[in-house]
């Protein structure tokens, strides 16, 4: 055993005493009555220590097994009754300690110990002391690992000051307050001792009190007299002693960044005038202080936000115009870009647009435009106007932006040039014209396909002749039109050049709508005049005409073979002129199917090759036939119409009902040329000498009946009358003859109305033995005869058919028939006899018809 | 569903348990549980039985946590040390014939006395525990055990038995003496939990027997008391 002083008051080095003399102890005696003894009892060691554990047993025959944390351990037998276990570098397992126990086998004996392993006590880190008021010194440190165990307290901390010899036990594990007695002590030498059951660690610091001043956070930070560009900051600090001066740092922050930094030395009250501020801007003033003489640490910061007052906008608006004619009156649309926050100097309340007529003396016209608008529209006349645009906020108006517009749009006929787009934008250049330009403006639309097209412009100085127009809105395949204006000294814009270009040309996405015309057997014409070349995703350089036919394997002249994406072959013809929008397909085969496709092409490629259109050529002669047949049909139709319209005249001329021999041209010719004494024979001169009897089979009568019309519907008010004279048996000389009024006879009429020669059955005419001498009688006879013919006409019955026609001198008008039978006159001649087939000459009588004579039918049909 | 013992921040189960304990504590004062009342002691015996089963479940979780805290070999399932320093703990194990021969009053009195002692030891355990979580679990269990004690007192009152008065000087204390080593202290803690577990088994049997006896006084009940290792 040996000893050593362990006290912070005693300066190093501290020496150990000499070892005491050895003393023997009897282990068996120390056992007492217990059969087993385990040593050391509940030992506390630091982590990483080496520990030796031994046990003593009373009985050597006992079989003893020992366990460390449940795992059997085997030790070194020192004696017949004593064994030892060496544990090297024990580690911390749990706060309740490491359990070691031994037991005697076959006996209910168990002995154990708990080895408490503590974490290593660390030296306090970051030990420092400071004062805020010269009254209290506050020392702080980082204690490190906690070494506390159950029933064993954690490490404690003691603060010792060597100059004063004072020592205090710290209440907290990481800080300690030391009371400064008076101003007498300037230097301090502190030793901080951390101590637990296993040992201690200490750390020292030597300092002057005035060098460890950490001021308290300033307070009462205010801003006064805040204008657009200036503001006064005031604040207060807690006084430190009587003579101390504080250095305060004043930061001005805008949007989180330090814009200005000022150092101010103060005693108690601080004040500073901040200048060069931006109007209508939010700032933050921040103040912290430190000891001006011996800087140790900055105090905590205090900050205050403030917003500067508004000022009149500092810059004129960027104004541009667009002149168009609405209902014949020039309409000027003014556009302007909103002022940036830097130039607006406050919230824009409205825009003032002042219009001044330069050609005539008239008052100024002032328009107020709301702040939300970025433009306005003015309707003017053909005069020139000077327009002033200003932006207003609460502090006043901005400088005026002046632009002159005229009702005359100027020279718009400027040839458009092409401009190439790159990844950076469009490189636009122009040639100055007048040399008096005060600037240039390039105008374009960000979205030319939309309405409004989002007009954009770029102002350029007078010495600039090129610029790069870039916009995030530019897209490939969209045609952008740029107009370059020259701004004259009168501030009037004149169109200088037009440019059009694509950021990147694309292949056409659609093919034109092609119309097929002039289709012949050998050719047809394609046209796509409605196709607009301006609204395509690239400059149209021309067109490809594709033709394919199953009939023809070879391509026509001007075509070359091409392979389509689907590997099929076709013929391709290229049209290099984008304005040529027609194409004649020639040398084709008649009656063949051709498929064609017209697709435009740009520098990026051609349009889709998918939808071919089929055309079938007609045969070779069809057009000839049409040329002949069509006129013929027209001629025939014309003749027929003429005939129809002039039918009465034609009839009288060509085939009158009763030809007038005296009117016959033939007769006059004969008379004049051959025999001037030739006369016309009278009817009375004619003696009928023969009657033709036609045998009519019954079948034809039935057929006739079936096809007849109802005679009741037929005009029968003026029937034709046959005036018959009885033919005497002995009559042989000339005498009164028969006068025929009828043109034609049909069977029915012949049956009933023939000139006295018709067979009259007794039943049909019972009370009429004589000839029919009156129309009434005739009608009756006809009626009855017809009724008989319907029901009783027997097969093989003979019919009598007169086929002669006589023209009476008195019967020029067939409608004015005499009531009485005319006197017999001489027959002169027969003319134009004809027999009409029964089925055609007259319609058959209807079943309810009471009449059988169809003579008038002929007339009626004729005039119909 | 009852919450697992030692579950932190189980506010609802805490509240429910406090309510339950309060009710059980005041059971003796409830007129309906007095012998003069119609329902008799049956319902309170049933409730006491239910509470023992619940505490049994709760202790299983708590014992696992605490024995792990002590470390091996105490948390090993087959560790069965001799009762060296735990002689003062009330023994739950008893001869079966003796147990059968116990009358209701004696049976209830032994239960009451055992839990009174065990609760006292358990509170000492709680004071010593190093971790906050373990202290919360132990405090929770102590509250529950306090409720069981009140419940037994209620049954005894219902049956007209007086509560046993602690003899002066025999007040159980949990104060490890200077000669008491840390290992022995751990052994005591082990035995305290084990004995508590056994008592809860026995009480369940006791109250089950009592319950049946109240329903059919003549019915014979056999008890097969088993002692399971932890």
TrEMBL record, chain A:
Family affiliation: Belongs to the type I cytokine receptor family. Type 2 subfamily.
Q: Where in the cell is it found?
A: Membrane
Chief subcellular location equals membrane
MF-aspect GO terms: cytokine receptor activity
Polar residues compositional bias: what residue ranges? 849-858
Give the way it sits in the membrane. Answer: Single-pass type I membrane protein
Which domain of life does the UniProt lineage start with? Answer: Eukaryota
Chain ranges of the Fibronectin type-III domain: 217-311, 313-411, 508-620
Q: Which GO terms describe its cellular component?
A: plasma membrane
Protein name, entry field: Oncostatin-M-specific receptor subunit beta isoform X4
Q: Where are the transmembrane segments?
A: 624-645
Q: Which UniProt keywords apply?
A: Disulfide bond, Glycoprotein, Membrane, Receptor, Repeat, Signal, Transmembrane, Transmembrane helix
Automatic annotation (TrEMBL), chain B:
Q: Which family does it belong to?
A: Belongs to the IL-6 superfamily.
Q: Give the highest taxon in the source lineage.
A: Eukaryota
Q: Which Pfam families match?
A: PRF
GO MF? cytokine activity
What is the gene name? CLCF1
Assembly and interaction partners: Forms a heteromeric complex with cardiotrophin-like cytokine CRLF1/CLF-1; the CRLF1-CLCF1 complex is a ligand for the ciliary neurotrophic factor receptor/CNTFR. The CRLF1-CLCF1 heterodimer binds SORL1 (via N-terminal ectodomain); within this complex, the interaction is mediated predominantly by the CRLF1 moiety. The tripartite signaling complex formed by CRLF1, CLCF1 and CNTFR also binds SORL1.
Q: In terms of one coarse class, where is the protein primarily found?
A: secreted
**What role does it play?**
In complex with CRLF1, forms a heterodimeric neurotropic cytokine that plays a crucial role during neuronal development. Also stimulates B-cells. Binds to and activates the ILST/gp130 receptor.
Keywords, A to Z?
A: Cytokine, Glycoprotein, Secreted, Signal
Please identify the protein, giving its name as recorded.
Answer: Cardiotrophin-like cytokine factor 1
Q: Kindly indicate where the leader peptide sits in this chain.
A: 1-32
Indicate the transmembrane segments per the record: none
GO BP field: cell surface receptor signaling pathway via JAK-STAT; positive regulation of B cell proliferation
Its localization reads: Secreted
Record's Gene Ontology CC terms?
CNTFR-CLCF1 complex; CRLF-CLCF1 complex; extracellular space
Q: Which organism is it from?
A: Camelus ferus
* Listed InterPro entries: 4_helix_cytokine-like_core, PRF/CT
């Amino acid at each position: 055993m040996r000893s050593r002083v362990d006290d912070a008051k005693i300066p190093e080095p501290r020496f150990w005493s000499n070892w005491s003399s050895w003393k023997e102890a009897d282990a068996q005696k120390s056992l007492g009555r217990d059969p087993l003894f385990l040593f050391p009892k509940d030992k506390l060691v630091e982590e990483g220590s080496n520990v030796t554990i031994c046990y003593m047993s009373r009985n050597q025959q006992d079989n003893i097994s020992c366990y460390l944390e449940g795992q059997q351990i085997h030790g070194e037998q020192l004696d017949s009754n004593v064994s030892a276990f060496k544990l090297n570098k024990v580690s911390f397992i749990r706060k309740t300690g490491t359990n070691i126990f031994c037991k005697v086998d076959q006996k209910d004996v168990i002995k154990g110990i708990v080895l408490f392993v503590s974490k290593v006590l660390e030296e306090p880190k970051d030990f420092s002391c400071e004062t805020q008021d010269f009254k209290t010194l506050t020392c702080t440190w980082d204690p490190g690992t906690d070494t506390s165990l159950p029933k064993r307290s954690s490490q404690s901390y003691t603060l010792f000051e060597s100059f004063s010899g004072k020592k205090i036990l710290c209440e907290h594990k990481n800080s300690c307050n030391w009371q400064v007695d008076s101003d007498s002590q300037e230097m301090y030498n502190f030793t901080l001792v951390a101590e637990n059951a296993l040992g201690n660690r200490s750390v020292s610091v030597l300092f002057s009190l005035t060098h460890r001043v950490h001021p308290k956070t300033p307070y009462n930070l205010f801003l006064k007299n805040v204008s657009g560009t200036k503001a006064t900051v005031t604040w207060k600090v807690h006084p430190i002693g009587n003579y101390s001066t504080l250095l305060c740092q004043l930061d001005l922050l805008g949007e989180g960044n330090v814009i200005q930094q000022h150092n101010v030395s103060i005693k108690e009250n601080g004040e500073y005038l901040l200048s060069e501020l931006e109007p209508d801007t939010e700032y933050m003033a921040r103040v912290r202080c430190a000891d001006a003489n011996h800087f140790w640490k900055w105090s905590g910061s205090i900050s205050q936000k403030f917003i500067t007052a508004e000022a009149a906008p500092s810059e004129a608006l960027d104004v541009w115009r667009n002149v168009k004619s609405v209902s014949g009156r020039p309409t000027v649309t003014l556009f302007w870009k909103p002022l940036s926050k830097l130039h607006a100097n406050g919230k824009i309340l409205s825009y003032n647009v002042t219009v001044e007529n330069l050609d005539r003396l008239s008052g100024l016209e002032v328009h107020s435009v709301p702040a939300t608008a970025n433009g306005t529209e003015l309707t003017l006349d053909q005069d020139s106007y000077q327009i002033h645009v200003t932006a207003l906020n609460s502090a006043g108006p901005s400088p005026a932006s002046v632009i002159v517009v005229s009702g005359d749009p100027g020279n718009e006929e400027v040839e458009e040039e092409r401009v190439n787009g790159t990844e950076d934008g469009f490189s636009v250049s122009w040639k100055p014209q007048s040399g008096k330009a005060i600037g240039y403006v390039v105008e374009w639309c960000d979205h030319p396909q939309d309405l409004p097209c989002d007009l954009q412009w770029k102002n350029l100085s007078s010495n600039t002749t090129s610029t790069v127009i870039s916009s995030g809105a530019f897209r490939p395949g969209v045609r952008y039109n740029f107009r370059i204006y020259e701004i004259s000294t009168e501030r009037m814009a004149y169109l200088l050049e037009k440019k059009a270009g694509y950021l990147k040309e694309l292949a056409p996405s659609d093919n034109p709508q092609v119309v097929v015309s002039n289709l012949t057997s050998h050719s047809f014409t394609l046209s796509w005049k409605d196709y607009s070349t301006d609204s395509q995703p690239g400059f149209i350089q021309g067109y490809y005409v594709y033709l394919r036919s199953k009939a023809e394997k070879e391509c026509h002249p001007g075509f070359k073979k091409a392979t389509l994406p689907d590997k099929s072959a076709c013929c391709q013809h290229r049209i290099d002129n984008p304005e040529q929008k027609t194409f004649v397909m020639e040398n084709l085969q008649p009656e063949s199917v051709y498929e064609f496709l017209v697709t435009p092409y740009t520098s990026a490629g051609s349009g889709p090759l998918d939808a071919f259109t089929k055309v079938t050529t007609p045969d070779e002669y069809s057009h000839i036939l049409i040329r002949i047949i069509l006129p013929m049909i027209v001629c025939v139709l014309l003749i027929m119409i003429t005939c129809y319209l002039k039918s009465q005249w034609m009839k009288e001329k060509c085939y009158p009902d009763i030809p007038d021999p005296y009117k016959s041209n033939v007769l006059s010719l004969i008379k004049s040329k051959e025999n001037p004494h030739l006369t016309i024979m009278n009817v009375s001169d004619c003696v009928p000498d023969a009657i033709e009897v036609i045998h009519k089979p019954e079948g034809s009568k039935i057929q006739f009946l079936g096809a007849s019309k109802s005679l009741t519907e037929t005009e029968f008010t003026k029937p034709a009358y046959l005036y018959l004279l009885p033919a005497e048996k002995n009559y042989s000389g000339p005498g009164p003859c028969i006068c025929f009024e009828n043109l034609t006879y049909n069977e029915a009429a012949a049956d009933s109305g023939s000139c006295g020669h018709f067979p009259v059955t007794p039943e049909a005419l019972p009370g009429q033995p004589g000839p029919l001498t009156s129309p009434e009688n005739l009608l009756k006879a006809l009626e009855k005869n017809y009724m008989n013919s319907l029901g009783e006409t027997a097969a093989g019955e003979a019919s009598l058919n007169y086929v002669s026609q006589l023209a009476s001198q008195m019967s020029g008008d067939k409608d004015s028939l005499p009531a009485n039978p005319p006197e017999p006159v001489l027959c002169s001649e027969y003319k134009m006899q004809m027999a009409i087939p029964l089925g055609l000459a007259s319609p058959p009588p209807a079943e309810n018809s009471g009449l059988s004579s169809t003579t008038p039918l002929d007339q009626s049909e004729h005039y119909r | 569903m009852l919450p697992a013992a030692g579950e932190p921040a189980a506010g609802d189960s805490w509240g429910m348990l406090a309510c339950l304990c309060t009710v059980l504590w005041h059971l003796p004062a409830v007129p309906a549980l007095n012998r003069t009342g119609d329902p008799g002691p049956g319902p309170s015996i049933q409730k006491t039985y239910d509470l023992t089963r619940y505490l049994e479940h709760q202790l299983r979780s708590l014992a696992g946590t605490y024995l792990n805290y002590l470390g091996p070999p105490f948390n090993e399932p087959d560790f069965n040390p001799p009762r060296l320093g735990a002689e003062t703990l009330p023994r739950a194990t008893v001869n079966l014939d003796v147990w059968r021969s116990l009358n209701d009053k004696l049976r209830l009195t032994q239960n009451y006395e055992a839990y009174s002692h065990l609760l006292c030891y358990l509170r000492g355990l709680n004071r010593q525990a190093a971790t906050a979580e373990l202290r919360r679990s132990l405090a929770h269990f102590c509250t529950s055990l306090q409720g069981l004690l009140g419940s037994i007192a209620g049954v005894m009152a219902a049956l007209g038995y007086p509560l046993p008065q602690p003899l002066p000087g025999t007040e159980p204390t949990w104060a490890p003496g200077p000669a008491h080593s840390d290992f022995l202290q751990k052994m005591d803690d082990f035995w305290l939990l084990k004995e508590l577990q056994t008592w809860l088994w026995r009480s369940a049997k006791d109250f089950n027997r009592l319950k049946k006896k109240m329903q059919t006084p003549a019915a014979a009940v056999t008890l097969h008391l088993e002692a399971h290792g932890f």
